[in-house]
Amino acid sequence: MRILVTGGAGFIGSHVVDELVGGGHDVIVVDNLDPAAHDGRPEWIDPGVEYRWLDVADPDTWRGALAGVDAVCHQASKVGLGVDFGDVLDYVHHNDLGIAAGLAVMHELGWRGRLVLASSMVVYGEGAYDCATHGPVRPGPRSVEDLDCGRYEPPCPACGAELRPGLVFEDAPLDPRNVYAATKLHQEHLAGAFVREHPEVSLTALRYHNVYGPRMPADTPYAGVASIFRSSLAGGRPPRLFEDGRQRRDFVHVRDVAHANVLALTRDEPAPGAFNVASGRPSTLLDMASALAAAHGGGLEPEVVGGYRLGDVRHVTASARRAAAELGFEAQIGLVEGMAEFAHAAQRRPPRTDVARR
């Protein structure tokens, strides 16, 4: 197969490229090497792959890249919470306009094939909760007053009682709570609208949970929490956890995530719909930080410092059943094993500070 991977020089995309090349596929990569995330070309560029250093928000990029392509793996995206709401234009440019340009050109060219979209668990907002009295409930955003007082658990919206967190399934209501989350959901909606009018194109949306591993970006406000903690340890500082450190997440290794993409792209029959891409083994942030600190070997213990980031959710962990049943995906790398590797693995070079913080 000839497969286009957008964002193929980045953290997840580069691992997708590696597995596709290893499987004998012909790969073309489009990546704009966004200076807010990259300090030049990364060292893992594959000399046998065709790279085009272009912006996916430009329709001409897609016109040149889609020729002869059997499948598209759309990884290109601006990720993370960013610095503040002032990032909204960048997020909309890279995420909303990026997918819109691609879909418009697919329509223009009459392209047919598989579209695999990198989505995110952030589209769910808070995770699944159960009230002893009212059963399954959907708590609203946590109030600043509660957070300021250290009340981090969202209460039952009906009676105010404490809730029990559970697993989110793909049919859960979608409730993005920040700019990044809103753009990821919009990507899903735009792609969904496209395939409804173009049934010859299949869409698989992979909702990544907390991805970590080699090549993760370092020292940027757009990095994930595992990378932030590792940068602290490398600088001789303990990881500092907001709230009480008991926030529940599902940490999934980047090679497992890449494999989920390759399955969706190359399996005999397409697997349409949305899939949680998760380990299926929830952990707290403190669990993750402790495993990473132990693997780092510097004698630094995580510190719980309280406080919060407005827009963060308390708990979001996923059911991985549908991915196993319909996609054939099951994560193979456990948290302790993965953190032992990540503690010493190569990361993407930090971007220039003057560019990253514009």
Textual characterization of the structure:
With 358 residues, the protein is α/β, with parallel strands linked by helices. 33% of the residues lie in helices and 18% in strands. The chain has helices spanning 11-22, 59-65, 88-109, 144-148, 179-197, 225-234, 254-266, 285-296, 321-327, 335-342, 353-356; strands at 2-6, 26-30, 50-52, 71-74, 113-120, 129-131, 135-137, 164-165, 167-168, 201-208, 210-212, 240-241, 248-249, 251-253, 273-277, 283-284, 303-304, 317-318. It has a seven-stranded parallel β-sheet, with helices on both faces. A three-stranded antiparallel β-sheet has the order 7-6-8, with no helix packed on it. A two-stranded parallel ribbon has the order 9-18. β4 (71-74), α3 (88-109) and β5 (113-120) form a beta-alpha-beta unit. α1 packs across α7, α2 (59-65) packs across α3 and α3 runs parallel beside α5. The longest helix has 22 residues, at 88-109. The radius of gyration is 20 Å and the shape is globular. 45% of the residues are buried. The model is unreliable at 354-358 (pLDDT under 50).
